[in-house]
Write a structure and sequence with these properties.
Length: 89
């Protein structure tokens, strides 16, 4: 186990330790915390929510869809989702 007293802290770690242990340090206010949260959410990319469905297709249509998807080099379910997405937008 490491002994904290024998560790050497770099400049950044010393500043961080000082800011956390300082008697004047009060942390972030609720407003500052909310502003920081909003700023960080701006940098994150939200993954679209996908919902599984069940659909009945003509067997011949499914064969054609699979064939087209294979020619494009993508899975057929991905191909169907892409085509539906194009239709609704």
């Amino acid at each position: 186990m490491l002994n904290y007293n024998t560790q050497t802290l770099d400049k950044e770690e010393l500043l961080l330790e000082e800011s956390l242990t300082s008697s004047t340090s009060q942390g972030l206010t609720a407003q500052q915390l909310e502003a920081e949260k909003t700023k960080l959410q701006h940098y994150t990319v939200q993954k679209p929510v996908k919902k599984p469905i069940s659909i009945r297709l003509l067997a011949t249509d499914l064969v054609k869809l699979k064939s087209k998807a294979e020619m494009m080099g993508i899975p057929y379910q991905t191909f169907i989702a892409l085509e539906l997405h194009k239709m609704v937008n």
